Amino acid sequence: MGYIKSAALEETGYVVLDPYDQSKDPKEWLDIEYNDWKSSGDTRFAPLASAFGEIECNGFWNHKPPRTDKDGVWIDSQVAKAPNLVRRAQEPGANVGRCRVIELQPTPYGDCLYNLHQDDNNRLNPDGTGWVVRGFFNLTDDKDSFFVLRDNRTDPEGEVRIALPAGAQLIIDTQRLWHAATHLGSDPRYCLITSWTSGPELDAYIEKYNGVPHAESVHVDQAVLDHGYAEQARKDAARAAYYAAKGQQAKIAMSEA
Predict the structure, then answer these.
(1) Is residue 250 scored above 80 in pLDDT?
(2) Which CATH architecture has domain 7-255?
């Protein structure tokens, strides 16, 4: 039967929406409660919607009963502090699974490449239903930072680097694309991440905000790129050696966050 997917994401696996005027909203991400939940880099997460409305970040399939990343329960205490963030997450009208704000500490390009991962959004997702994708709304003005997208984790061919000023809005099939952020600021980067179920509601939202499946890739000096490739290879080799010493195979990068 196959999953219901958005045609807008078919070509590249992502779309860039019109930018949002972030300056008109208060900095609600500074008021909500965070968990020390590690994903791709030095991170914390502040959940707005979770499996049962509690301030925790675990994958829905790790709860009882286990389920896919759909039907998140809004956390009353967090919603009260961040009504604008919740409004933005709910605007598409699509089913929301996990919804949270990520706090990412400065992360150079080489670390970003090592952190590249695919998400596990659709574990337990029944065939014939909507495919879960994720929205990324950049909240802080990280002009020198960028999101990295790849079809193959260790192959830079076709790598896309998307700029992250305040108000940047992306929707990504994060189970298809390897992704992570290079954050070059001195302060933490904050971004609202929402799991949405694909379907006519999300399609209409993408059309409303003129989603395009291509972005001009941020220019990075070749020396920085080469150093990043070498750093990724070095860290991958160190990880493989660590697991080999334990008689195990290195784990594939897959995030539950």
Answers:
(1) no
(2) Sandwich (2.60)
